[in-house]
Design goal:
Blueprint: H1 12-16, E1 27-34, E2 41-47, E3 53-54, H2 68-82, H3 99-107, E4 121-124, E5 134-135, E6 147-150, H4 153-160, H5 166-175, H6 177-180, H7 183-197, H8 208-224
Helix pairs in contact: 3-7, 4-5, 4-7, 7-8
């Protein structure tokens, strides 16, 4: 819709092409047109072919086979992304991320006495999950929602999508430990847990118990830091 053009999506793939040091498909061009029947604009972006298939679904049920160079490429890309600058604001789940969103999401599920203040905002992909990365060659795609977000959003999102496979979730936390050990990373971990444990939680979601356990741990850490 026209009113979403300035804030969400739209030219995310094109603008991400300017990012340095991030493994992604090369952006080649786009076509834009106005809908003649509805108040909407349409856009089609062309990129080079992905170097491999997506690793899996957004939420994995079994561990993928990923070699050490794959993890190294993931780390290099996320670190390079966070070191850059943008005027965009991330829109995870198509909602603009703000301090109020973070606070309301966490306090809607957990204790009110947790300080949810975000200290550092950095560029993030904002939709990091196993369906948006390729293997065996690492490449990150689907850039519609990228922009500034709390440090650790991407790492926490990837961890949350891995929780059904404990060893994989542990590997994500190990690889991205600098994010998870930061205060903002702890807040983002709680933010990710709130999405899993919130009012729309599915009772058979295998991620419920590990998310609940992690949330209890992180809350204690935030309250004593």
């Amino acid at each position: 819709m026209l009113d979403k053009i300035p804030d969400q999506g739209w030219n995310g793939t094109e603008s991400a092409a300017c990012l340095q040091g991030v493994a992604q498909p090369e952006w080649l061009g786009c076509v834009v047109w106005r809908d003649t029947d509805e108040p909407a604009m349409w856009r089609a972006d062309e990129t080079e072919l992905l170097p491999g298939a997506p690793v899996g679904n957004a939420i994995l049920g079994e561990a993928p086979e990923l070699a050490d160079p794959w993890w190294e490429a993931l780390n290099a890309s996320l670190d390079a992304l966070a070191a850059q600058q943008t005027g965009r604001v991330a829109t995870p789940d198509t909602v603009t991320v703000t301090q109020d969103l973070v606070t309301d999401s966490i306090r809607g599920v957990f204790s009110d006495d947790v300080d949810t203040t975000v200290e550092r905002w950095v560029p993030a992909h904002a939709d990091l999950n196993w369906a948006n990365m390729t293997a065996p060659t690492f490449s990150l795609f689907d850039w519609e929602d990228w922009g500034n977000a709390p440090q650790g959003l991407d790492s926490a999102s990837l961890w949350a999508s891995s929780l059904a496979v404990p060893a994989l979730a542990d590997r994500v936390r190990h690889e991205r430990r600098s994010d998870f050990e930061s205060r903002d990373g702890k807040v983002m971990t709680l933010f990710a847990c709130a999405k899993i444990l919130g009012p729309h939680a599915h009772p058979e979601d295998p991620r419920l118990e590990p998310a609940r356990a992690m949330a209890e741990q992180v809350i204690k850490e935030l309250q004593t830091s």
